[in-house]
# Entry
Amino acid sequence: MTDAENNMKRYVNAVERRLNLPREIKARVMSDFLSAISARREAGLTDEEIRRELGSPKAVAAELNKQMKDFAYRKSPWRFACLALAAVSGIYLMISMLIRWYLCNLGLMGVGIIGGADGPTSIYIAASSNSGKAPLIPLALLAAGLLGFFLLRRIRPKKTPE
# Structure
C-alpha cells in the first residue's frame, strides 16, 4: 500500500470514528462516503485534492451526523453522575483500605488472645464486628457506577431506519 492510500484510509477511519450513529446506519453512510470518494477518483482527482475538497474528518463527520440526526445516538445526562459515583466510592474504598492496612501494621487492629497456660484461652477481636462487610457497600457502588457509565454511553435512537 502506498503512502497516499494509507493517508486516505486513515482519513476515512477518522471520519468513521467520529460518527455518532448505530452500527448498521454507520456502515451504510460509510459505504456511500467511500462511493463518493471513488467517484471523485474516477473523475481524475488525487487523494490530496479529495481530502482538501471534503475538509477535515471532524467537519465531514459533523456534517454527516447533522444530516442523520434522526438516527444519531443521544448522550445520557446520567452518564457522568454514574462516573462521579464510581470515583467517589473508589476513592473511599482505597482510603478505607489504606487506613485498615496502616492500623493493622501498627498493631492497633487485629486479633488479641487473652488467657493463660492454666485455664481456658479466650480470643477477642479488636476490630468492629462488621469490619468484613465494610467494603461491600462502596464496592457495590463502584461497580454500579462503572456499569452505569458504560451502559449509558449511548442511548438507542428513538427512530429506526426504514
About this structure: The helical segments are 3-17, 23-42, 47-54, 57-67, 79-106, 136-151. DSSP finds six helices and two strands in the chain. The longest helix spans residues 79-106. The chain has a mean pLDDT of 79.
